[in-house]
Write a structure and sequence with these properties.
By secondary structure, this protein is of the alpha/beta class. Helices cover 30% and strands 35% of the residues.
Length: 256
């Protein structure tokens, strides 16, 4: 039974970064709870413990001591960045680490980047307490910049937080070799995209220059191929054979 420790950064008297009407402590808790729920919905063979499940104050030592005493197999600390940049990055300890620490982080990074259209800021190392003091493989993720308008607008979307959480859940599952529950596919079920902008181009091929027909707000299409990278953006392939942008500015992805 794999033991997963989810650590929503900050909380209680420590709001973390604050900007654009958002608080880091609120966002990290939402992402962590969604990650927990996806793991429990789609995978088996694990147990999950969280440093907090509500807006409570937890010191850094309380978090790592709790994970260490529980005997966690993977420590995942979830944060939102600040400082005027843009994009996603993650960290492991900048000292001596196990091979699993590196492998686990590589899998998590790849799965998060499959789900989001944040700029990829890369895989980094740092001397953070939760990475240094955890006795198991540990990673700290930075999911967009709260003080950058473009990133903040994405973080204001609950559907976008779902995508971030799905990336975390799938990455953790891959790292620990969790088995999918019977009947659970890519994101759990059949995917669909709904157009949420007045009009939108579709494409004949996975090429932004190969425009096909315009679709309209409210139209829903069945996804044949999940989100994949095309140039500087991402697309879905539709059951019809056409392609459509995966940008959450223009479409909403959901399953049923």
């Amino acid at each position: 039974m794999a033991k997963i420790y989810l650590d929503p950064g900050h909380g209680g008297t420590d709001p973390g970064a604050v900007a654009n009407g958002l608080q880091e402590k609120v966002l990290t808790l939402k992402i962590a709870l969604k990650t927990r729920d996806i793991l429990n919905r789609d995978y088996e063979g694990h147990s999950i413990r969280m440093s907090r499940t509500s807006d409570t104050t937890r010191s850094l030592s309380q978090r790592t001591n709790d994970a260490n005493s529980w005997g966690a197999d993977y420590f995942v600390s979830i944060h939102i960045n600040a400082g005027g940049g843009t994009g996603y990055e993650d960290y492991i300890y900048n000292g001596s680490v196990s091979n699993n620490t590196i492998t686990y982080r590589d899998k998590l990074h790849a799965e998060v980047m499959k789900q989001v259209d944040f700029r990829n800021r890369g895989k980094k190392r740092a001397n953070f307490h939760v990475l240094r003091q955890s006795s198991m493989p540990a990673v700290l993720t930075e999911n967009g910049f709260i003080d950058t308008t473009a990133d903040a607008n994405k973080l204001k979307s609950d559907a976008y937080l779902d995508r971030i959480a799905l990336g975390h859940a799938n990455g953790i599952a891959q790292a620990l070799g969790l088995k999918r529950k019977s009947g659970s596919g890519g994101s759990g079920k059949q995917g669909y995209v709904e157009v949420i902008t007045p009009s939108l181009w579709t494409y004949n091929t996975a090429n932004w220059d190969d425009k096909a027909v315009i679709v309209n707000e409210g139209e829903v299409f069945t996804v044949a191929r999940d989100k994949f990278k095309v140039g500087n953006g991402h697309m879905y392939q539709l059951k019809s054979g056409l392609y459509i942008t995966a940008s959450t500015q223009y479409v909403r992805y959901y399953t049923k």
